[in-house]
Amino acid sequence: MTPTIKESLDQMLDLLQKGLLPFVQRELEPEYGARWREKATSSLADSDTAASHLDANALLSIMWDDWDAVFRSTLGQWERSLVSELHGIVNEYERQGGVSAEVACRALDAASRLLKAVCAPEAREVERLRQDLLRSRIAEHVRVTPREAPPPIEGRPLAGLRPWRELVTPH
What is the pTM of this model? Predict the structure, then answer.
């Protein structure tokens, strides 16, 4: 059974958190030392609870806020765009409780590319989620889209052609 959009995005958020946390920690520790977590979460809205659990959205916020000071030297502008897009989609998903299938596919694609950029092994699983969602969208489209019958063949055969039954023995 293929997962729903909500299940796919929930799994993506878990995988994004697992894949980004080691990278964020590896990049922030040289800059801030042992207190990297407190420094990174100081810009988050609820820094007390964020310090204990860095979810995917918090990690994306940290990457965005500390881009110039920390992440710019490791990642390029393309990856910054992925962080921005993912952050916006995750905020929309958390506020509204869901997104369209098209937005979900974009989120899964962006998450996969960002995880590949940071060499996280979770990228493969996120890519699988994206492909599953695309397959289910195509199957749904095929199921609900009626097939058009081909137009009937009109006209008369050319003069002098023998009927096919005279040329080939029917079985």
Answer: 0.77
pLDDT digit string, tens, across residues 29-68: 998 888 888 888 887 776 544 455 789 999 999 999 999 9
Q: Could you give the CA distance from residue 150 to residue 152 in angstroms, rounded to a whole number? A: 6
Q: Letter for the amino acid at 156?
A: R
CA distance 27 to 149: 59
Measure CA 5 to chain center: 11
Tokens read off for 87: 């952050």
Residues in the chain: 171
CA–CA dist 106, 158 (Å, integer): 54
Task: Name residue, tokens 């699983």.
Answer: 125
The C-alpha atoms of residue 109 and residue 99 are separated, in whole angstroms, by 15
